[in-house]
Design brief:
7 strands; about 20% strand; disordered N terminus; alpha/beta; seven-stranded mixed sheet; 7 helices
């Protein structure tokens, strides 16, 4: 996939607090076939369910970063009501580091946009999906960076492994707050239903802030439904 320019315009006419989530999606060659088709179907459902929630459709903001041999901003940050289905295409290796770094970059730039617009926001989520083992180049540095971001309460990370060839040892390194989950089969549909429901719950809470100084985390204040679509890896 070709690189897309960052599009970070914030709709200032919508003064609601924002719940941002970046999907960091493995589209390497090993995802070809049924996995990538089910991923596309699950994402379409995710878009539909967010749009069916009157509050989440204007408070939830979603971006999609895909990674294969490199990383691409496939869906720039936008309000959920503007999202459209995507057909993901599998190719390349598993440059997870590139995906993590791009996701962290656009999260920080998005928060700058919120602050400039005077908008409150919830701690952004990073939701990472992979079916394999990350390319070693740059991965250690990416792990350090994402751990530092979580320690500074700048982001909350969820990691999900898909299939039988996931290197869960590497996924466990990505968060000191929660371990990775293993998706049951190719049940992307249930996973995305949980994610849309969870984002809806966050968007209804009153824990938004105008900066990163508050130690409160929506995940500590809101009881999320158990992820029945996955098991602890």
């Amino acid at each position: 996939m070709a690189e897309m320019p960052l599009q970070l315009e914030v709709n200032e006419r919508n003064r609601d607090p924002r719940a941002a989530c970046v999907l960091v999606v493995d589209v390497s060659g090993s995802m070809a076939g049924e996995p990538i088709r089910e991923l596309s179907r699950g994402y379409e459902q995710f878009v539909e369910e967010l749009n069916n929630d009157p509050l989440a459709r204007k408070r939830a903001e979603v971006a999609v970063v895909t990674f294969g041999s490199g990383a691409s901003l496939t869906v720039p940050f936008q309000e959920a009501r503007n999202l459209t289905p995507q057909e993901f295409i599998a190719s390349g290796t598993t440059n997870m580091a590139a995906g993590i770094n791009m996701a962290l970059d656009i999260i920080e730039e998005r928060k700058q946009g919120y602050r400039a617009a005077g908008l409150e926001y919830f701690r952004p989520w990073m939701f990472l999906l992979t079916d394999g083992s990350p390319d070693p180049s740059g991965f250690d540095a990416a792990v350090t960076r994402v751990l530092d971001a979580q320690s500074a309460k700048k982001v909350t990370l969820f990691a999900v492994g898909v299939g039988d060839n996931v290197n869960f040892e590497h996924l466990r390194r990505l968060s000191s707050e929660r371990g990775p989950l293993s998706l049951k089969g190719l049940d992307f549909s249930s996973m995305f239903a949980w994610l849309s429901s969870s984002m809806s719950r966050v968007s209804m809470s009153n824990t938004a802030h105008a900066d990163d100084d508050s130690p409160s985390d929506p995940n500590e204040m809101i009881e999320l439904a158990p992820p029945g679509w996955g098991k602890i890896a």
